[in-house]
Specification:
It contains no helices and seven strands. The protein has 77 residues and is mainly β. It binds tryptophan (TRP).
């Protein structure tokens, strides 16, 4: 599968947000982890290697489906 044109935009709203890529195929495992500090942005695609993306920490996530907010584990707001 080729990358689609659909990009996912992740903007970290705290330090040490992790963007984790999970493998495509029978075996779903982490293959990449990217650490973003507050204000940093990652723009990513789903590819032949990446079927899912997990975000840990407080971030703003934009996709073609809309916008969603992830929160940190111990968020008070
Ligand atoms: N080499 C990976 C791939 O082509 C890079 C990648 C694409 C990635 N999308 C990602 C890594 C999302 C983390 C999260 O699949």
């Amino acid at each position: 599968m080729k990358p689609t044109n659909d990009f996912v935009v992740i903007k970290a709203e705290e330090d040490s947000v992790n963007v984790i890529g999970l493998t495509r195929g029978t075996d779903t495992r982490f293959h990449h982890s990217e650490k973003l500090d507050r204000g940093e942005v990652m723009i990513a695609q789903f590819t032949e290697h990446t079927s899912a993306i997990k975000v840990r920490g407080k971030a703003q996530i934009l996709t073609s489906f809309g916008e969603v907010q992830s929160d940190s584990k111990h968020s008070s707001s």
